[in-house]
């Protein structure tokens, strides 16, 4: 089985297990045997996410009674599978790393960025040994990143460059699925990783890793994961997207004001221990934030400029056409 077949199989398994292989989308329903006199079944909107704190607003699924559709969260373990599912139409929306969303758009996949999942929220974690006490000690070491097309690749290249370390020759990067990183650190497969929480917090609490720097201190208030939605769904059912973004915005406000309760609600979606999620939501405050989640041109332009500066991509996309901020603006009243 080649990589492409593996990814396709993983996507269909994930979507099939989560959704019973039902079709979903604007105006469609898989319900059969329904008479015309019965109420019309609500369409299902499938939204992909990873079990990371960046996607914690998915608790809106359990908190919100959506009137116009059924929200079906679809959990993935890696970015490649999630991106393939969004590209292939197996899901209608997904929280994806900003560079991945831009890459999809560059490949003419018709998606738009409608909502920021969070700000900040990642961490550079090193093996808990005395030899790795600071950024300078990473020279010659192996560092895991979740994807070449990730905010984390930008963050680590920016940090190393500022410290006088050549990211192209002085360290070794390997791509790794976020849930695998803590184990890889504990077994010595890698010396450090940079990724979304809660894996930094998990390694910290298990005492196999230590925080070298939080991403908020590398690039303050940076964006990372963005809700991408298929353009066709936005065009055919903008009311549903407005309701979806409104529910996610309410969840974001709830997380900021109720971190302990949000950590408790996260179990169903992230599968992490409540104390780990509570730790990364509160220690220190601002480690990850859920405020100011309206997508704006300035943030995306900065991300795109870094992608070009570090050679992660060679071509620009039309960001004005990619960003659709009207739903988030309405949700936050701005």
UniProtKB/TrEMBL annotation:
InterPro entries: NrtA/CpmA_ABC-bd_dom (IPR044527). Its main location: membrane. SUPFAM superfamilies: Periplasmic binding protein-like II. CDD domains: PBP2_NrtA_CpmA_like. The keyword Nucleus does not apply. Residues 1-24 form the signal peptide. Keywords: Cell inner membrane, Cell membrane, Membrane, Signal, Transport. One of its GO terms (cellular component) is plasma membrane. It is found in: Cell inner membrane. PROSITE patterns: PROKAR_LIPOPROTEIN. It comes from the Bacteria. This is ABC transporter, substrate-binding protein, aliphatic sulfonates family. It comes from Sporomusa termitida.
